[in-house]
Task: inverse folding
């Protein structure tokens, strides 16, 4: 099939690589607002052609992937849907409620399937695209009942071939769960980087002493503001709810250490260790 | 040389593997308070023999490694030093000030070299031992001027052969820096696990939706309380100082999101991104 990818960054570019490698896409057309990204996407072989002609790209495609930050998504998705006839359109965004609310009365709503591949890295742009990013990961399909059955079937078929595991959620549920298992991790990582950069003025020491543990908790702090601020904005209520709980947990641990109540600190760590049951 | 390792867990066991693989150790004697760990260390080939006879082990050794949790360290290290003649003794502990203060008047102080290999994983026990854990990592040598020159020279030679990069710090400095680049990461990870376990009652959803970002920020929450509570206790002042700064940073980010001041959130993320300069 012919696939158009709008936004050829980490996610759009990695999806292009996967769709080509699995022979799902016979031709990939790329669009990116940034001419440099267009050029790099061509050079890196992520896409077969780039264009600024959205209408032509959509008309020549079977599947249109909108992989832009969530603020731009609110503008771009309706533009794409206005051009759609039989094509299937997907987003790959991290928040769903506001987007699905915004297009709920769109006459082409049925051609759109809201999906969220639970995969990524802290890097962005076409150079960040990597093969096999999605292999074995989870794809969330949101509010599938609002999409046409044939559109859902096409999306299921494409992503099962990557292969990805499919999970079906309502948009409200999706936004709550991702606040816990994705959005909060980015906030704590940004705050941890700020803490260390603020207080540890000897950067050479951070460099010398940082080991795997520090790197793994702080690596998400390299993530792009252009991607994450719109996510925090669109999922603000859930993010604040989780963040408030996290602040309570941290403050509680802080107070127990301040009070030298080490048996209680031990109990809390034993409780935290239960995450072993869930993450291998 | 003959090496005795007291405490054959993640660090002691991994060091045994490295000392054997580099042919630095011709014989490794293991001691562990836990008979099961002794048995496993033998089965896994981490050590050539196990014994409960500390005096005999020390007398037959050139190098004695004390790799026990920091609370036990305060008891075990003086017991070892009381048995030492020409042998060199090292700890591999994560906090230094309290330990070095406790032994500062020990008549065998010169035979002891305080070191901290900046490497580890979230697992513990002899089965957690892995080859090459220390390759290319940093070894901090603390207060080297309080150790005999020949003892420091032997330790430098051993760890340079692993190979590790040597960094020299005072104990006070060491404890401040490790609060930033190691201890705080563990506290935020424990608190993040507690947050998610407390609020996300649908464990199946965590399992399905958790991707690399969540796993990397939360993996340290699998770490052992037996190891970490004594570290928080002995480095309490620095840990509280860093934790208070982290709470301020998190609260600030929370307030900006609550106030919908997204330009300021963007600025904070750009500041946090500066960690890219330090961590590749």
Result:
């Amino acid at each position: 099939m012919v696939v158009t990818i709008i936004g050829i960054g980490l996610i759009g570019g990695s999806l292009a690589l996967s769709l080509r490698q699995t022979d799902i896409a016979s031709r990939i057309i790329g669009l990116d607002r940034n001419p440099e990204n267009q050029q790099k996407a061509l050079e890196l072989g992520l896409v077969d052609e780039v264009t600024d002609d959205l209408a032509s790209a959509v008309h020549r495609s079977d599947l249109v992937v909108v992989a832009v930050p969530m603020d731009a998504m609110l503008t771009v998705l309706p533009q794409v849907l206005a051009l759609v006839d039989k094509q299937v359109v997907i987003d790959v965004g991290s928040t769903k409620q506001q987007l699905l609310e915004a297009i709920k009365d769109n006459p082409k709503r049925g051609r759109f399937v809201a999906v969220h591949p639970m995969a990524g890295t802290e890097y962005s742009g076409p150079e960040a695209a990597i093969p096999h990013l999605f292999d074995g990961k989870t794809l969330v399909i949101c509010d599938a009942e609002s999409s046409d059955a044939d559109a859902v079937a096409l999306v299921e078929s494409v992503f099962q071939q990557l292969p990805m595991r499919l999970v079906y959620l309502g948009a409200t549920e999706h936004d709550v769960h991702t606040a816990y298992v994705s959005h909060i991790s980015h906030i704590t990582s940004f705050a941890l980087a700020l803490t260390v950069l603020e207080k540890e003025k000897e950067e050479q020491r951070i460099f010398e002493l940082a080991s795997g543990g520090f790197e793994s908790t702080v690596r998400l702090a390299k993530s792009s503001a252009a991607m994450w601020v719109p996510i925090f904005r669109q999922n603000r209520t859930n993010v604040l709810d989780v963040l408030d709980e996290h602040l309570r947990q941290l403050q509680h641990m802080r107070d127990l250490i301040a009070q030298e109540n080490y048996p209680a600190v031990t109990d809390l760590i034993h409780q935290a260790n239960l995450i072993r049951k869930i993450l291998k």
